[in-house]
Amino acid sequence: MNPDIESVNERLEDQARRLSALIGATKPRATDRFFLVLGRTGSGKSTFISRCTGKDTNISHGLFSCTDSIDVFDMKWEGRRIYLIDTPGFNDTNRSDIDTLSVLATYLGASYSNGVRISGLLMLHPISDNRVSGTNLRNIEMIEAMCGFDKYDHLAIATTMWPEHSTKQERATLNGREAELSGSDKFYGSMIFKGAVMFRHHGTGRKGHDNEVSSARRILAHLISRSDRRVPGVLQLQKELIDEQKTIGETSAGTVIAADVYRHHQARESELKQLEERIREHIFGGSSSRLAELSDIKAMLQQDMKKLEESKETLKQSMSDLGEKEFQKAKQKMDEIEGHLMEQVNVKEEDLKDMEDSLHHINNDRSMVLALPKAREAGDSSGSNGRNQASRQRTPSPTPSATPSTFERHLLSQNEELMRLVRIARRDASEMRRIYAAFKGKTRDQALNGTVNGVAAGAMSGIIAAVAAGGLLCSVM
Ligand SMILES: Nc1nc2c(ncn2[C@@H]2O[C@H](COP(=O)(O)OP(=O)(O)O)[C@@H](O)[C@H]2O)c(=O)[nH]1
Ligand SMILES: [Mg+2]
């Protein structure tokens, strides 16, 4: 059985347990700590969490990857429980900033309203990135807008992607970049001034490097010790959504995005107007190929406009809208998982039936071969003709008690192999039925309870991918 399928219930239940802790559906202990891990996609968040927790976070490309949502991982640390929250980055090519902010708002809002506090934040910044990388600037801007703290002593900034080998000149460039990141208000300067601490994280991105693990744990130890000194502040985003009941577009972080959405919307609108003008000109006397080109551009612009309209709608949503939306998504994902598991049950049962049919055919063939000599003997005793007698004397036919013929041996080994495969297929089918029944009986409810406040749908998309991929793998073969 594919291990991903085998552990689907376990993984879902485990994920639900960690999400429940984050959103306060299960009451955390006073010593528990929740840390948000932030940074652009590819900055090393999942790898960092994996090094701290020792768990497979399946990096951006794994089956269980949760790049479009948050995912929570936990670990024990000197008798207490530490939760590390893997988040999607802003300015990602695959998703709009408003989607990223809604996911963060949904989880962080639910968490705050149920009494859970974010104990600290870790921002990862790849030192390899160009100094003025727009993506990093956007992520920094969004952190400041989401936090709005007077003090940033619960924030650690860690530069990642330091080269393992470098020339003197490369080192000088990177050192200069690091100094600018920590000194300039355009980057982390003002947050460092308000207490944030900057680290170098010595990672390679490859497993099995003790240095990388100790580097990650050193940074985490700093965050834990800071969180023990004073209660961390509530994020501005949480206050705005819950205490002030603002819509997402009215929050400080939301206004940064709203400004962009409206600016883009206006720009697209005017581009579209100009384009329509040119299309009209081409209809009367222009080339037809140019007209087709312009129509394609128009379709792309309209698509863009549609997304921007959706973003504008999302900006109007309140915490309860976000929660309801996410809860509906979670339910839908559960239905999809159930459907995929049912499909797997059918596949396994069909496999089993095919093999039982083949076994049945081979057994029939074998019985026929075994019956042949008897039939001949029976034919002999009832007066065989001279020709048969002669041929039997030249090549004596095998009897059931004699050494089996090559064909019979072949059938026998085929039969044994098939019996083995049938046993495996039977086991696989019954395992799959058991997994399906467990999902329906317990996991589904538990996972939905873990999301009862309206979160977690996105985090399950990876599980669906794993279940679907399971259809391609078959332990019988
Ligand atoms: N050289 C180097 N590579 C890293 C480091 N951290 C992560 N990586 C690699 O960078 C890629 C992106 O990392 P990932 O953890 O998926 O980034 P995320 O998108 O922020 O979660 C992966 O291929 C990692 O193996 C690091 O500190 N140094
Ligand atoms: Mg990741």
Automatic annotation (TrEMBL):
Q: Name one GO molecular function term.
A: GTP binding
Carries keyword Coiled coil? yes
Q: Show the segment(s) annotated as Disordered.
A: 375-410
- Coiled coil region boundaries: 291-365
InterPro entries from the entry?
A: GTP-bd (IPR006073), P-loop_NTPase (IPR027417)
Q: What's in the keyword line of the UniProt record?
A: Coiled coil, Membrane, Transmembrane, Transmembrane helix
Q: Where is the composition biased (Low complexity)?
A: 390-406
Ranges for domain G come to 36-92
Which parts of the chain span the membrane according to its record? 454-476
Q: What is the superkingdom listed in this entry's lineage?
A: Eukaryota
Protein name listed in UniProt: G domain-containing protein
Query: Native species of this protein?
Result: Clonostachys solani
